[in-house]
Write a sequence for this structure.
């Protein structure tokens, strides 16, 4: 009899916790943020997690997703910048001969991107494809920097 009543009380307690978890606006936003994070929409995930945190600063899920989104967004921004600068360098190379002025621009861009990559904090929570893509651009800029210094 004691075991049945203990089980019933535990079940009621768990149900109450789940009800609170799904009704509380902070946790509701956290769950939504988790969904957006998992689908790669880091900007939206960060925004929702921040809102959840503002509603309840003790919401650990919100803090976790907010932090994970920040790390992922650093990688996303690096990749966006890398794509933009690669296009810019390709355009410079297609315009004709590479003179000292163009070489200096390429060297500066590559140097900035190499240093930016070094500042990215490696994290196990960031999507592996983001890390891999960022590393690929880093290697590309490293080669460009090396070539720009040779000439």
């Amino acid at each position: 009899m004691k075991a049945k009543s203990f089980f019933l009380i535990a079940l009621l307690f768990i149900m109450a916790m789940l009800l609170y978890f799904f009704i509380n606006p902070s946790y509701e936003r956290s769950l939504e943020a988790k969904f957006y994070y998992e689908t790669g929409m880091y900007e939206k995930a960060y925004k929702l997690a921040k809102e959840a945190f503002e509603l309840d600063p003790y919401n650990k899920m919100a803090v976790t997703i907010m932090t994970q989104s920040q790390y992922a967004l650093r990688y996303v921004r690096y990749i966006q910048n890398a794509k933009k600068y690669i296009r810019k360098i390709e355009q410079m190379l297609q315009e004709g001969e590479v003179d000292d002025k163009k070489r200096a621009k390429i060297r500066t861009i590559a140097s900035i991107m190499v240093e930016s990559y070094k500042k990215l904090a490696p994290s196990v929570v960031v999507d592996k494809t983001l890390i891999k893509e960022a590393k690929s651009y880093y290697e590309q800029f490293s080669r460009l920097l090396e070539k720009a210094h040779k000439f």
Q: What stands out?
A: The mean pLDDT is 87. The helical segments are 2-23, 25-38, 42-55, 60-94, 100-119, 128-150. The chain has six helices and no strands. Residues 2-150 form one domain.
